Amino acid sequence: MVEENELLTTLKQFTGCDQLARLTRTVLLTEGSRYLAEAAECFWLFDVYASHLSGVDGNKDWFTCLKLTKTNHSASVSIEDVNGRVLAKQKIEYTDFPLTAITLYGCWAGEYWVLMLTSEY
């Protein structure tokens, strides 16, 4: 697993996307989000996001935001719509996620969700 400073430095380099990777049938990852999942060994975070998006109407709530905040070895995750309305919350009892906080975006692309770093939006 990558250290926090190295991870933050590398994540800043992702500012767009040429290739998408499939996470589930209806969820794709950008290059930056895939790098995060692999480098921080946190595919679980994207699974959490995808599982909550399965109940969201993308035509109505086309933009979502996942916010993770870590305290010690636990974390809280919230998913909000474009207006800041909380769509879902989840407590993570234990995590070794290297960052104390991160925000990810999810955008509806007509047939699937694209999960991305904020710098890739």
TrEMBL record:
<feature type="domain" description="DUF6876">
    <location>
        <begin position="6"/>
        <end position="121"/>
    </location>
</feature>
<dbReference type="InterPro" id="IPR049241">
    <property type="entry name" value="DUF6876"/>
</dbReference>
<protein>
    <recommendedName>
        <fullName>DUF6876 domain-containing protein</fullName>
    </recommendedName>
</protein>
<dbReference type="Pfam" id="PF21781">
    <property type="entry name" value="DUF6876"/>
</dbReference>
